[in-house]
Design brief:
Layout: H1 2-21, H2 24-38, E1 43-47, H3 50-63, E2 75-77, H4 82-92, H5 97-105, E3 111-115, H6 122-134, E4 137-142, E5 155-158, H7 164-186
Parallel strand pairs: 1-2, 1-3, 3-4, 4-5
Helix pairs in contact: 1-7, 2-7, 3-7, 5-6
């Protein structure tokens, strides 16, 4: 059991070290979120399973606060409204639950952050395509290869891992770093 624990921690540390070695993607993503927030746009966030939880976590940090008081940033987790999700799943199919919300809520100048360990979930792929067609900034948080959704994103963070738990750990680490950078930029001092 100790070997498994040690191995998981070592893989986490290696992935975090790879992330630290090249922070350029996180900087670019933070800058895109700052531009959207300062221009009065909104940030839509989506994902499935653990990535759905991350979506709600990130939206909460942006609307509320991460570490310090500042103005609220318009952010909506497309994973949180069970009535909308079940309506869309029933009427349009699960593969369109995020796409339809992007169509309803997204406008040019807004931003979609799509989170997926694989980048191949049909509902994520449809959401990024719709966001791009709408004129939104499209950002992906994916696993190491990005999957089919990657080509529809203007920016992406690819977690330097293929193991789903490690990818999810890197996603939330990256999200926390980005939230802090965004918070500092919209509320300096």
């Amino acid at each position: 059991m100790e070997d498994k624990i040690s191995s998981a921690i070592k893989r986490h540390q290696a992935a975090a070290a790879a992330l630290a070695a090249d922070p350029s993607a996180l900087r670019a993503i933070a800058e895109a979120l700052v531009r959207t927030a300062l221009a009065g746009g909104k940030i839509l966030v989506c994902g499935n399973g653990g990535s759905a939880s991350d979506s709600q976590h990130i939206a909460g940090e942006l609307v509320g606060r991460f570490k310090k008081e500042r103005r609220a940033i318009a952010a909506v987790a497309l994973t949180a409204d069970t009535s909308v999700l079940t309506c869309l799943g029933n009427d349009y199919g699960f593969e369109r639950v995020f796409e339809r919300q992007v169509e309803a809520l997204g406008r040019p100048g807004d931003l979609l952050l799509a989170i997926s360990t694989s980048g191949s979930s049909p509902n994520i792929l449809n959401a990024v395509i719709k966001a791009r067609e709408t004129g939104m900034t499209v950002i992906g948080f994916f696993g190491k290869n990005g999957g089919p959704a990657l080509k529809h994103c203007g920016l992406a963070f690819l977690a330097p891992e293929t193991d789903t738990p490690r990818v999810q750990e890197m996603h939330i680490l990256a999200a926390h770093i980005i939230c802090e950078l965004v918070e500092d930029a919209v509320s300096p001092g």
